[in-house]
Amino acid sequence: GQPAPLLLQRCAINFRNSTITYRYMTGFDKAGVKLAEINLNFGRLWKEDNTLDTEYLDHFLQSALFYAPNNNLILFFQTDAPKWYLKKYPEECFVSNQGVKPYISYASMKYHRDSTEFLGKILEYVKTRPYYHQIAGFGLDGGDDGLIFYKRIIENEKIKGKIKIIKTIPMITNLKFFIV
After folding, report:
1. Which of 35-39, 57-61, 96-100, 139-143 bottoms out in mean pLDDT, i.e. has the lowest?
2. pLDDT (0 to 100) of residue 179
3. How is the beta sheet containing 135-141 ordered, strand by strand?
4. Residues whose CB is less than 8 angstroms from the CB of residue 139 and which lie 6 or more positions away in sequence, other chains included
5. Rounded to whole angstroms, how far apart are CA atoms 154 and 160?
6. Per-residue pLDDT for 35 more than 80?
7. Beta strands at 72-78 and 135-141: parallel, antiparallel or unpaired
8. CB atoms closer than 10 angstroms to residue 133
9. Phi and psi (nearest 5°) for 17?
10. Does the pLDDT of residue 134 top 60, yes or no?
């Protein structure tokens, strides 16, 4: 065949209105777009007892593949801290000249360690799932530019050697793709 440009759809899984999900995901799938970006939020996946909400993760990814069974997925993780984490560790919140802000400070080494460990749990779990062969890659999103967070995760000894950056797009510092 002829080389074709890569097309990627950004998916919105909407559990309240499956018509929207069906229209977009199934439409793209039928049109031949076989790569979808799925955005997952730490705040929804990371439970207060430091476990992964596997039921939600499976439901989310199985729904995407139900609507677009021929797709491969790039899973992007929005890495901002869950609300329970901010309440439990208020000293890790961002502080400005207006006071404490209700989001994580990306200078927080504790959050870097904890979130990197949690990301490892997600990756290990996803590798065990029957849909893993349809996972094309993973990405990180969150914070103002994400650079510090990426650097610390990539240099973390638990993750080092397990991931490889395959593409960084200059001028879009939040957009990095990696494979496990």
Report:
1. 139-143
2. 43
3. 9-10, 35-41, 72-78, 135-141, 176-179, 164-168
4. 37, 74, 75, 76, 77, 175, 176, 177, 178
5. 6
6. yes
7. parallel
8. 8
9. -145, 90
10. yes
Residue 165 has pLDDT above 80, yes or no: no
| pTM higher than the cut 0.85 | no
Write down the pLDDT at residue 31: 80
CB count within 10 Å of CB 176 equals: 21
Amino acid at 140: L
CA-nearest of 66, 89, 76, 67 to 122 is 76
**Using CA atoms, how far apart are residues 127 and 148, in angstroms rounded to an integer?**
26
Percent of the chain with pLDDT over 90: 27
Burial profile 134-170: b = 16 or more Cβ within 10 angstroms, e = fewer: bbbbbbbbbbeebeebbebbbebeebeeebeeeeeee
Give the closest residue to 118 by CA, choosing from 164, 54, 61, 167: 54
Structure tokens at 64: 């995407």
**86-122 burial by CB neighbour count: b if 16+ within 10 A, else e?**
beeeeebbbeeeeeeeeebbbebeebbebbbebbbeb
Which pair of structure tokens corresponds to residue 10?
């950004």
